[in-house]
Each structure stands twice: as C-alpha cells, then as structure tokens.
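pasting for ref
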Amino acid sequence: MDSFDQSTGFRYDPNSNTMGDADGDSEFCGILEIYVHHARNIHNICIYDNQDVYAKFSLTCNPDETLSTRIINRGGKNPEFNENLMMKLTQLDAVLKCEIWMLSRARNYLEDQLLGFSLVPISQVSGKGKVTQDHSLSSTDLFHSPAGTIKLSLSLSTSFPVKPSITPSKSSISSEVVILDRKISEVILDPAWLISSPRCLSETCCS
C-alpha cells in the first residue's frame, strides 16, 4: 500500500489573507495536489550502477516555477517516490508537465539528464475528485518515444472557506422604535379611525 507520509512543495494556508488580496495574487484560482507513486520501466542510462532519480513538475504556462521530489538513490528503472506535492494554479486550462531526471554525481562533467516527460491537462482532473492514473513518458518533444510510465494521483481544489463578514446588528431599542413608528403610521392612516375620531390629528398626537 502506498504511503502518504512524505510531503513537500507549496502549502496553502486557509487562514492566510493572501488569497483574494487586491495587492497579492489576484489570479489565484486553485490548488493542485500531486501524489507521486512510482515510475516503471524508465531508461536507466547509468552504466556503472542503478541511477539516482527525481521527478520534477511545472506548468507549461509558467515553466520557471517548479516542484521536485526528493532524490531516490539507486532508483534505477523502477523508482518508488511515494511523495505528496502541492502546486498553486493561476489558470484552470493549464497543462501539468511531469519530468523524470537522472541526478548527475559528477556535475563538473555531466549535467542532470532528462529521462522522460509527460503532459497532463488540468481539465482532465477538474471536478473529478482524486484521479489516479499511469501516464506514459516520452523522451522527446518531436514524436512519442516510449520512456516508461509514472503513476500519479491528482486532485484539484478550487473552493476555499470564506471568512464571514461582520455586520453590526441593530440594538433592541432601535428595533422597538421602528416597530412603534410603524404601528402609529398604520393607526393614523386607517380611514375607520379617522371617522370615529373627529378631532384633528394634532390634538390627538398632543393629548
């Protein structure tokens, strides 16, 4: 059974005042929760041992902001991640990009190597609760070149608790005055009362 103990990445605080702040991120529209289960049959390009791998996530509309899992040492072809990430969304028609990378232990000679990637439209998740699925990885942008699969559980939350506005309540004395004035108006405007009371209204009000 997969574990949900590990968690990293962006955290949304429902008690924070940043959401909806006119000076803050007015385009904030939801939180995408990403649970990374595992990858299967990915390319193992390390020739001397099982490779160290990690997964990286971003939105195609904002590729500079990324989230990464922890590094799985000697993950090889079938790394187990079992890690939870959270990503802030600014548009619901975005596309999630998931990448699998091999960590380079000799950065002076070799950079981290991309092993495969997958694209997941957010529209496939919106309104469907938690969606768990294996996604095919490809090793090139030009055409689909199979590079294994990655299993993800995705869920989108677009509704958040709203703090109730505080409206000052009218005092009981004011309410009684309003009710009393209403009753006096009804009596004065009642034609039956005018016929049975020939005195002027001023004398009535002043007596």
